[in-house]
Structures are given as structure tokens and as C-alpha cells.
Amino acid sequence: MQVLAKRYPKNCLLAVMDRYSAVVHNMEQEVLLPSLLRDLQLSTHGHQVQAGTPDLYNYFTMLKAICVDVDHGLLPREEWQVKMAGGKANMAENEAAETEEDEEEVLGQLNLEAQFHLHLSSLHHILTHLTLKAEEVTRIYQEITGQAM
């Protein structure tokens, strides 16, 4: 398991990002056969699994993809749109997005500090939740392969 080398205050976003990255890298090192995770669901603590819920393999690939962004930064917006559109960015969608950006800019200037705190706390919450998911994927894989501690 990777050990965090840097020390940040407990609720610092950098600490949460480092922890997420370390847990996902540990998950990647532990899960040698990701295909074993197909058709397995995360434990739902006594609740029935809902239809359309992603399996552990989907979580595994999603967590790895997010980790790349956490470790290396985001793609520029144009590259991200091309990637999400499968290489076929639509001009009408780009124009609509620019119009939305102009509206958001006007509204965003009204209370930037409140928006910053909202997004920062949301990011902190999401990364903490994803870290727990990565730990659970690793734990379930270890149970499947008989490596559980």
C-alpha cells in the first residue's frame, strides 16, 4: 500500500486528493485480474441492488480514470469535449455552451466566494466518497481471491 509522503491539514483538499490517489494506486496494484469484478455489485448494506447499478468493474475503471485527472490535471475544455463526443464535436453544442458560459459568468460574478466554497466542499465530499469506493473495490477483490486480511 502506498504511504502518503506529504502532510497537510486533515480537511485540506490536497490531503483528500493525495489520499484518493494513494488508495486508487493501491487498488490498481491489488487488482491483478479486473475481469473478476464483472457482474459483482458493491455491498448495499441490506438493501436490494437496483437495476442499472454499475458493477465493480465499472467502478474500477471509473476510479482509475478520475485518478489520472487528479494526478495530472484536467484536459483543456476542447479536448474534453472531443473525448466525450467520441471525436465528433458538434458546432451547435459548442455555441450553446459558449452562451451558457456567458450567462454563468454574469451570475458567477455575483457571489464568487460562496460558489467557491460550495464547489470546494462538493469536491472534498466526492473525493472522500470515491476513496471509500476504491477501498471497497479492493476489499471485495481481496475476498474473491482469498487475500482478505
Quick overview:
With 149 residues, the chain is mostly helical. It has helices spanning 13-30, 56-72, 77-84, 91-108, 112-145.
Instruction: Please state the oligomeric state of the protein chains shown.
Output: single chain
Find the structural class using helix and strand composition. Answer: mainly alpha
What Rg is obtained from the alpha carbons, in whole angstroms?
A: 19 Å
Strand content: under 5%
Number of strands: 0
**Count of alpha and pi helical runs:** 5
Helix proportion range: 55-70%
Largest sheet: none
Let me know the average pLDDT: 79
Provide an overview of this structure.
This protein has 149 residues and is mainly α. Helix content is 64%, strand content 0%. The chain is built from five helices and no strands. It has helices at 13-30, 56-72, 77-84, 91-108, 112-145. The chain is globular. The two termini are 13 Å apart.
Structural key phrases:
149 residues; mainly alpha; 64% helix; 0% strand
